[in-house]
């Protein structure tokens, strides 16, 4: 049965399939980055906890969930090859329900973003536009192994970090915060590249030129490791320059832990990529919070 036949087999989507469509497991990175932004602002999050809570919900379940729904709709034929049990190709979300869900969540994102003031709303506009630019034709930046992961990294890490800092400080964050947020967003390009390993077969057949497709898993993994490490070196040097040697040392130790995890990853990039997400990536995001704490002492 083709994808088109399957999506006509039902009239209403399954509730469990709708939850899987927006992939709760992917919500954590932007939620964490938003929290890092609020900490880096140098303002007590407890004093403005409604804005913190609303921003976390916006960054994770709403905007990130919307981006996942949009990606699944635009990738329904790719998923029929890579993951035929996904909600749309399996028929559990029939017809155009995947598209309607993504569009409805786009509107909801903007409504919630409006509650966060001009900085929060502006960032939400950018986030929604980036999500559709990544997945949808004719732009579909996902086709590029450089632009696609780069856009996702900046959207998942830099943008929510900037938003959290801007919302809590009610203005543009300091240049130090912007610099750090951009560095961690660039480093996340490597994390996104590792996530592309699971779609290798379908990407090859459908013309998605991810780095694992264009370079092969081994070379792509090496590139991803360097992309993750170099920005963290710049973070460490920046912290030292700003008089935060203890924080810089902590990030350095976490970076050395990642180097060890990378040595394991490079022995079997495709097989060890999920393992690295639970080890090296955990150390990466821990360094983000350490750095955010350092920025709070600078006034954000």
From TrEMBL:
<feature type="transmembrane region" description="Helical">
    <location>
        <begin position="278"/>
        <end position="298"/>
    </location>
</feature>
<feature type="transmembrane region" description="Helical">
    <location>
        <begin position="97"/>
        <end position="113"/>
    </location>
</feature>
<protein>
    <submittedName>
        <fullName>Bacteriochlorophyll/chlorophyll a synthase</fullName>
    </submittedName>
</protein>
<dbReference type="InterPro" id="IPR044878">
    <property type="entry name" value="UbiA_sf"/>
</dbReference>
<keyword id="KW-1133">Transmembrane helix</keyword>
<dbReference type="InterPro" id="IPR000537">
    <property type="entry name" value="UbiA_prenyltransferase"/>
</dbReference>
<dbReference type="GO" id="GO:0015995">
    <property type="term" value="P:chlorophyll biosynthetic process"/>
</dbReference>
<dbReference type="GO" id="GO:0016020">
    <property type="term" value="C:membrane"/>
</dbReference>
<keyword id="KW-0472">Membrane</keyword>
<keyword id="KW-0812">Transmembrane</keyword>
<feature type="transmembrane region" description="Helical">
    <location>
        <begin position="223"/>
        <end position="240"/>
    </location>
</feature>
<keyword id="KW-0149">Chlorophyll biosynthesis</keyword>
<keyword id="KW-1003">Cell membrane</keyword>
<feature type="transmembrane region" description="Helical">
    <location>
        <begin position="246"/>
        <end position="266"/>
    </location>
</feature>
<dbReference type="GO" id="GO:0016765">
    <property type="term" value="F:transferase activity, transferring alkyl or aryl (other than methyl) groups"/>
</dbReference>
<dbReference type="InterPro" id="IPR050475">
    <property type="entry name" value="Prenyltransferase_related"/>
</dbReference>
<dbReference type="InterPro" id="IPR006372">
    <property type="entry name" value="Chl_synth"/>
</dbReference>
<dbReference type="Pfam" id="PF01040">
    <property type="entry name" value="UbiA"/>
</dbReference>
């Amino acid at each position: 049965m083709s994808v088109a036949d399957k999506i006509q087999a039902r009239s209403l989507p399954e509730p469990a399939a709708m939850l899987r469509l927006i992939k709760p497991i992917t919500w954590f990175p932007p939620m964490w980055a938003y929290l890092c932004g609020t900490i880096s602002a140098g303002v007590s999050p407890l004093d403005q906890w409604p804005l913190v809570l609303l921003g976390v919900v916006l960054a994770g379940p709403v905007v990130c969930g919307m981006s996942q729904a949009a990606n699944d709709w635009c990738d329904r034929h790719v998923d029929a090859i890579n993951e035929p049990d996904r909600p749309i190709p399996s028929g559990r979300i029939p017809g155009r329900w995947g598209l309607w869900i993504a569009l409805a969540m786009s509107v909801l994102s903007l409504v919630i973003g409006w509650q966060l003031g001009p900085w929060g709303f502006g960032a939400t506009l950018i986030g929604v536009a980036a999500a559709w630019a990544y997945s949808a034709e004719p732009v579909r930046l996902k086709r590029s192994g450089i632009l696609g992961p780069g856009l996702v990294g900046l959207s998942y890490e830099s943008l929510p970090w900037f938003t959290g800092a801007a919302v809590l400080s009610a203005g543009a964050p300091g240049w130090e915060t912007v610099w750090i947020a951009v560095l961690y967003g660039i480093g996340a390009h490597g994390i996104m590249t590792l996530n592309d390993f699971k779609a290798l077969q379908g990407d090859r057949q459908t013309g998605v030129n991810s780095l694992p497709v264009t370079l092969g898993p081994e070379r792509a993994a090496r590139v991803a490791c360097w992309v993750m490490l170099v920005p963290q070196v710049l973070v460490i040097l920046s912290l030292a320059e700003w008089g935060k040697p203890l924080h810089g040392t902590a990030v350095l130790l976490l970076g050395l832990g990642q180097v060890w995890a990378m040595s394991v990853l490079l022995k079997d990039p495709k097989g060890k990529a999920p393992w690295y997400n639970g080890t090296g990536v955990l150390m990466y995001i821990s360094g983000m919070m350490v750095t955010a704490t350092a920025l709070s002492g600078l006034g954000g």
